[in-house]
Amino acid sequence: MSKRLNALYGWLLILPAVSLLAAFTHLPAVMTLLASVHSTPRGTRPPHFVGLDNYRDMMADPIFWQSLWNNLIYALATIPVSVALALTMALLVNRSFPGRSLARLAFFTPTVLPMIAVANIWLFFYTPDYGLLDRLVGFLGMAHHNWLGERGTALWALIAVAIWKESGFFMIFYLAALQQIPATLREAAALEGAGPWTCFRRVTLPLLMPTTLFVLINALINAFRMVDHVVVMTRGGPDNATSLLLFHIFEVGFRFWDSAYAATLTVVLVTILSLVAALKFHFLDSRTHYR
Predict the structure, then answer these.
(1) CA-based, 20 to 30 A from 164: which of 10, 32, 47, 208?
(2) d(CA 59, CA 73)
């Protein structure tokens, strides 16, 4: 009887969390999946079952493929650079030196700024002829550019903004993890003749793997949920050169009011995120040392 009471007590404790998770995560996911195989309701016309028609339309949609390709480039550029930069900054500010608190504040400040404010700040930086970036290149004698108006530079301009904003956020996790590593481990490695690079590669980096796995998953999610900067800075242009998957979903769902097709794109986006996250956990978990 006591075991049943304990089990009931345990279920009652997790019931609020399970209810919220089901109401705001699992139920919307199921409803989105159902909406993706139905038509979009129009006025008094209810949705009807269309099977995989929305997915066939998606496969023939060139903007979807362009957005997917843009998002892959965006993710492959932002994730490794922002994570590596975050680790470098954490290693720098983990040491004791004059002005360390100011350095930590400077690295972390972009994280606390609202994303819309960040987009507007960088929009000023990228303004042709008058922006800060064009002023600098003009001072160096180089030609001015329309950084957000040219296909060759627009997406990379957004990538630079994302790296600038996210690196400080990831740095905090690495800094906390570095402070949890006992100094005796590095001292023991030094006594065995290990140099700074060997100590970092053989001691520090393996102990940071749980944090690295967490940061990589968050960086992946951030790379595929970016929409604020695109809306403010480029609106997906020029010629869909900066259209990312979530922005395409936003356009389809709230500009063209095609909720069924937007649900189809959302299912594909969630599937991509789930598969990549599962692969990361599968390949990195064996290299992760939990303490």
Answers:
(1) 208
(2) 20
End-to-end CA distance of the chain: 36
Going along the chain from its start, the domains and CATH numbers come out as 1-35 (no CATH), 51-285 (1.10.3720.10)
Encoding tokens for residue 83?
A: 């994570």
Which amino acid is present at 46? Answer: P
Copy the structure tokens of residue 251.
């356009």
**pLDDT at residue 23 tops 70:** yes
The residues, ordered by sequence, that sit 6+ positions from 175 with a Cβ below 8 Å of its Cβ are 90, 93, 94, 104
Instruction: Tally the C-alpha atoms within 13 A of residue 72's C-alpha that lie toward its C-beta.
Output: 8
Per-residue pLDDT, 90? 94
Q: Which residues contact 216 (CB under 8 A, 6 or more apart)?
A: 79, 83, 280, 284
| DSSP-assigned letter for residue 25 | I
Query: In a 3-state reduction of DSSP, which class is residue 49?
Result: strand
User: What residues form DSSP beta bridges with 115?
Assistant: none
Cα–Cα–Cα angle for 138, 143, 148, nearest 5°?
Answer: 95
pLDDT band at 289 (very low <50, low <70, confident <90, very high): low
Confidence of residue 157 (pLDDT cuts 50, 70, 90): very high
The Cα-based distances of 277 to 64, 174, 181, 282 in angstroms read 22, 20, 26, 9
Phi, psi of 43 (to 5 degrees): 60, -120
Distance between CA atoms of residues 135 and 36, nearest Å = 48
Neighbours of 234 (CB within 10 A): 23
- Quick one: which H or E segment has residue 217? helix 209-224
> Which of 34, 286, 10, 234 has the alpha carbon at shortest distance from 120?
234
